[in-house]
Amino acid sequence: MLTIHKAHRLEGRITVPGDKSISHRAVMLSSISKGTSSIKGFLRGEDCLSTIACFRGLGISIEDKGDEIIVHGKGLYGLKEPEDVLDAGNSGTTIRLLSGILAGQEFITIVTGDKSLRSRPMARIAVPLRQMGASIEGRDYGNLAPIVIRGGNLKAIDYDSPVSSAQVKSAILLAGLYSEGSTIVREEITSRDHTEKMLKALGADINTEDGVVSIKKSELVAQDIEVPGDISSAAFFMAAAAAMPGSHLVLEKVGLNPTRTGIIDVLKEMGAEITIDNLFISGGEEIGDIIVKGTKLRGINITRDIIPRLIDEIPVIAVIAAVAEGKTIITGAEELKVKESNRITTMVTEMKKLGIQVKELPDGMEIEGLNQITGGTTESYGDHRIAMAMAICGLFANGPVKINNSDCIAVSFPDFQEKLKAVIK
Ligand SMILES: O=C(O)C1=C[C@@H](OP(=O)(O)O)[C@@H](O)[C@H](O)C1
Ligand SMILES: C=C(OP(=O)(O)O)C(=O)O
């Protein structure tokens, strides 16, 4: 259990752990590249460790040298049939992206996960991967893990994705590496494009035009990869400092890929003082220092168009909306219902426990401003983002906020508590 007390301001200069999305992709793509790769800045969170375990199970040698991860890639067809069921743990990214790669393999693989992952929808990847020629079975007609995949002999598809999801897009693009013809993915609102960027950097024949991505069968060549800090982890600190007058926080070397920076846009619209310094590009990804000065924020409307650019940051946005002036309305965010928990219901339930006036909507929530947040005991539901969002709530509360089952924070941010302690004044 974690207990958080009221803070007066946040001050200091910190780094946050490596980007989770990029860390997963670095291991996966290096495993199917020809040659050896060094991955620096890799996130040693439980989700990314699940990805390493799955690729070891597929016969890839992956060494953890402390300051770098070394992956001995075996090329597109170097994976071998695993002897046992692969466990993706709590990680949706692991099971869905991995499925795209397994769709290209002629052997059979069974992939499962923890209780939360076993309740999350897999039809969204099973439907297009079956269209490409893979066989995918599972509980609920292949919608729920454990899933059983036998691939091979894929053909390209032109897929108009019914959901703006980087996991769906990536699964199809990865299967596209193994498919005859040109595989095309379209989505209504562009989701994060780390897969496209990394595939390009490793030599794939991939292009994006007007938001439409196309990929042709290609070999990948190993490259060293440097993972930037995770903006989704930085978001907890950014949001808290932005809403706390007198704060001054510098978050160093954070990934600033434009498909991920919705949190910065939203905070600025709420009145936050945020600037970017030391901007550079590595592996096609923008990286820079984020400087936040605390001030009084105001409530805003957050609508569908921006949701994919801040989907994982909505829990912490809801928290600071509770102390901003005026109402905040979040809509078009129904995807939150199929994350590690139903993040609309869990956030609304837990914020109410601390006296916050918040209403659940079918596709989001409505948060009244200027709440007097009280102390209390909250639940994480085993969801790392809920646990950290409620910890940030504690920084603004009039009494101690306890978070039960906070161990799940290690899924994406193992040293969250230490980093937070270091900046609380
Ligand atoms: O591709 C990725 O790395 C991710 C995509 C998003 O999920 P969806 O693709 O389901 O929106 C996000 O919520 C998740 O934390 C990571
Ligand atoms: C939704 C998340 O991850 P995943 O889908 O990979 O489990 C997250 O990290 O907030």
From TrEMBL:
Enzyme Commission designation: 2.5.1.19
Active-site residues per Swiss-Prot or TrEMBL entry: 312 (proton acceptor)
Domain Enolpyruvate transferase: 6-420
Oxidoreductase keyword on record: no
SUPFAM superfamilies per the UniProt record, alphabetical: EPT/RTPC-like
Reaction catalyzed: 3-phosphoshikimate + phosphoenolpyruvate = 5-O-(1-carboxyvinyl)-3-phosphoshikimate + phosphate
Keywords, ordered alphabetically: Amino-acid biosynthesis, Aromatic amino acid biosynthesis, Cytoplasm, Transferase
GO molecular function: 3-phosphoshikimate 1-carboxyvinyltransferase activity
Role, per record: Catalyzes the transfer of the enolpyruvyl moiety of phosphoenolpyruvate (PEP) to the 5-hydroxyl of shikimate-3-phosphate (S3P) to produce enolpyruvyl shikimate-3-phosphate and inorganic phosphate.
Family: Belongs to the EPSP synthase family.
This protein's name: 3-phosphoshikimate 1-carboxyvinyltransferase
Source organism: Natronincola peptidivorans
